[in-house]
Design goal:
Blueprint (H helix, E strand, L loop, with lengths): L2 H40 L2 H15 L20 E7 L5 H12 L6 E6 L5 H9 L3 E4 L14 H14 L12 H9 L12 E5 L3 E3 L13 E5 L3 E9 L3 H13 L18 E2 L6 E2 L8 H7 L2 E3 L9 H4 L10 H18 L4 H10 L2 H11 L6 E11 L8 H9 L4 E8 L8 H9 L4 E5 L17 E8 L2 E2 L2 H13 L5 E2 L2 E7 L4 E5 L11 E2 L3 E5 L1 H9 L2 H10 L3 H13 L4 E3 L5 E2 L12 H16 L10 E2 L15 H16 L15
Parallel strand pairs: 1-2, 1-4, 2-3, 6-8, 9-10, 11-12, 11-14, 12-13, 16-21, 21-23
Antiparallel strand pairs: 4-7, 5-10, 6-7, 14-20, 15-22, 16-20, 17-18, 17-19
Length: 670
């Protein structure tokens, strides 16, 4: 009889819970249905799954056909155009090259540039002369939620804001992440070009390698896809429509919280026709399984990422190795030269120098020979040994033998500057006996730039640049190599110099590091130093040739310029190795023996700063040496206060501004 009330209470509780559960289930079902209905408005689940599957299984397969369209014949004959845009100040140079690269393929369609950022009349004339039609409009502004930036994006954004305060002299200023995202959103401007039936939108940072009119035969909406079926809006075939434009504006607001790599277009288009990735080849594709296929068959290059061929030497791009590709960088530089010649931007002397002593043949030969080589070796190094004088042929074999004594040396390449100079008997005997280890490279012409020519046979990540008249203990050279392995973005060497601001005239000068207080250095002489082999290609095949021509004209300062290059790319200072036994036997008759040497070098610092757009040199105060037995100085507690007082003046002196004496600018070496 006691259990009856308990049963009644349970029954009552069940009657109370059931309606609540039914209500909650109904709310959840309605919520899920509403979400699916909203999601289906913009994205077809089946199409996304299919695109993901196609992406993984087929898109990157070299066996697939170039066209990804269904096997139906397209007969599009309407009016079409290639379209890109100038949305940021930094867009002009890449857009200029893109327009000319399309025009050289003799396209059957118009080339249109949508101008949203004010550009000068000369720049407008450049684009129209190259064959572009300009459409002026204003940027559509959107509220972009920046709280979703990744840590890397926040770091880049912070650096961009700092760089705004020191805009470069001859180049565009960097753009903030907010501005870049605003411009990315303004891709929707392409849907407003109602004059055309189809538009192939192309990101400003692309370069066309061959005629791609065939893409207009693909069914709109066509775009390349990243892993997971995510649209890459760098290149898209679309049909202009004001109704689509208006809907895209509303979708963009809803999708603005998406990560940077996911386009809002994924939330709009139900059916996405995948375009073959050969129309959108990026440097990062080198990490993919079929990388060789991509770069050998590429139709369009996309210079996305931090490394830009038109500005890398002064902007210090983050993760530059990931976004650097030799073929792509050289292709852009060659197109820029063609643009300049078409527009008459270079004087006859520059064009003559480019044809006779320029880099085109050197770099083409290198790229042709470099294809089949394996990945670079990191636990050994190559030696690039420059020689010119006939009187040094007697000692050259001895220098080479010393390098060969190291097991870490992979190969020695003799840079034979004077092609007409005969090879002495002792050097020829060395070449014959050590042909697997020593290679002689005769240069087509004599130039200091040849010291940094890329060498196809170099297999190592590190190269030791050496003159034929210097000597250092091999153990110190190997110490420098180990230091480079830990700091591969830096020049690592034995003879530092520094650029310093002369307070008397507010001009940068070439100075002695040990004359400054506190001591520092920002330049490493290239007489004996380690560097990354990639910098050879960047020097010879990627820099504007006005810099290389300056070195040729002056017959000096290639070492200062290469320091500007490496610090400009890596944002890293050089590293000094302390060695008491580094000898330079060429001071008596070398370039640096002139009493005007420091004045010439000061002029170089100033001129190269102008050529690079800014002073890219980075200073350091530390050095590395072989281990020395040091420990704490021992003292008593009673002496502690006295020692602190004694060192107080030194601390105050250290906190003062840099002291530059007059003799920091002149040579006391000669």
């Amino acid at each position: 009889m006691q259990a009856a009330p308990s049963l009644i209470r349970r029954a009552s509780l069940k009657r109370t819970i059931r309606p609540r559960m039914v209500f909650l289930i109904a709310v959840n079902v309605i919520t899920i249905l509403a979400f699916l209905n909203w999601r289906d408005r913009y994205v077809s689940k089946e199409s996304i799954i299919k695109l993901m599957d196609d992406r993984v299984k087929a898109i990157f397969s070299p066996e697939r056909e170039v066209s990804t369209a269904p096997e139906t014949t397209s007969n599009f004959t309407g009016k079409a155009a290639y379209v890109s845009m100038v949305c940021l100040e930094s867009d002009f140079l890449p857009v200029r090259a893109l327009v000319h690269s399309i025009k050289l393929t003799e396209p059957a369609n118009d080339i249109v540039v949508v101008v949203m950022h004010p550009i000068e009349d000369l720049q407008r004339n450049n684009l129209t002369t190259l064959g572009a039609k300009l459409v002026d409009t204003t940027t559509v502004k959107f509220d972009i939620d920046m709280s979703y930036l990744t840590d890397d994006e926040k770091e880049i954004e912070s650096e961009s804001e700092m760089a705004e305060s020191e805009k470069s002299v001859n180049h565009e200023s960097p753009s903030s992440e907010y501005e870049r995202r605003q411009c990315r959103a303004n891709v929707i401007q392409a849907w407003r070009l109602l004059e055309y039936d189809r538009i192939l939108y192309m990101n400003p940072e692309m370069l066309v390698l061959e005629n791609i009119d065939e893409v207009f035969q693909e069914p709109p909406f066509t775009a390349t896809l990243e892993l997971g079926g995510v649209i890459d809006e760098s290149i898209m075939l679309l049909e202009p429509s004001m109704s689509v434009y208006k809907e895209l504006k509303s979708v963009m607001v809803k999708a603005q919280h998406l990560p940077n790599e996911i386009s809002y277009l994924n939330y709009f288009f139900k059916d996405i026709h995948p375009l073959n990735p050969l129309f959108n080849v990026k440097a990062s594709y080198a990490e993919r399984e079929y990388s060789r296929y991509f770069f050998q068959n590429a139709k369009v290059y996309n210079f996305e990422g931090t490394f830009k061929p038109w500005s890398f030497w002064f902007q210090g791009p983050k993760q530059w190795r990931r976004y650097f590709n030799e073929r792509m960088t050289f292709a852009w530089r060659q197109m820029d030269y063609r643009v300049r010649e078409k527009l008459g931007m270079d004087d006859p002397a520059t064009i003559e120098w480019r044809n006779e002593r320029g880099s085109e043949e050197i770099c083409k030969s290198y790229l042709t020979s470099r294809v089949s080589l394996p990945e670079r070796i990191m636990d050994r190094y190559s030696v690039l040994l420059a020689t010119h004088s006939l009187r040094r042929q007697e000692t050259l074999p001895l220098v080479i033998e010393q390098f060969l004594a190291s097991p870490k040396v992979d190969k020695i390449f003799i840079i034979w500057h004077n092609k007409d100079q005969p090879i002495s008997k002792n050097i020829q005997e060395l070449l014959d006996s050590k042909k697997d280890q020593v290679v002689l490279l005769k240069q087509a012409f004599d130039s200091l730039n040849n010291r940094f020519n890329p060498v196809a046979e170099v297999r190592t990540g590190a190269v030791l640049i050496s003159d034929d008249d210097v000597w250092a203990p091999i153990e110190d050279i190997e110490l420098a190599f180990e230091a480079w392995r830990r700091q591969p973005d830096s020049l690592v060497g034995f003879a530092p110099r520094v650029d310093c601001l002369d307070p008397t005239d507010e001009m940068m000068k070439y100075c002695w590091p040990n004359k400054l207080n506190p001591h520092r250095y920002s330049i490493m002489l290239t007489k004996l130093m380690f560097m990354d082999a990639n910098f050879l290609f960047l020097w010879r095949c990627s820099l504007p040739d006005l810099i290389l021509k300056y070195v040729d004209d002056l017959i000096n300062c290639e070492d200062i310029a290469v320091n500007f290059l490496i610090s400009g790319v890596s944002s890293q200072p050089p590293l000094h190795i302390i060695s008491p036994e580094v000898y330079d036997f060429g001071l008596e008759h070398g370039i640096s023996s002139s009493p005007k040497h420091f004045a010439i070098r000061t002029e170089c610092v100033q001129q190269i700063t102008e050529l690079f757009g800014r002073d890219t040199l980075v200073s350091a105060r530390g050095s590395m040496s072989k281990y020395q037995n040091t420990d704490f100085l021992s003292s008593t507690w009673v002496d502690f206060l006295e020692v602190l007082r004694e060192k107080e003046g030194h601390v105050a002196e250290f906190r003062d501004t840099e002291v530059i004496p007059a003799d920091a600018f002149v040579s006391d070496e000669w």
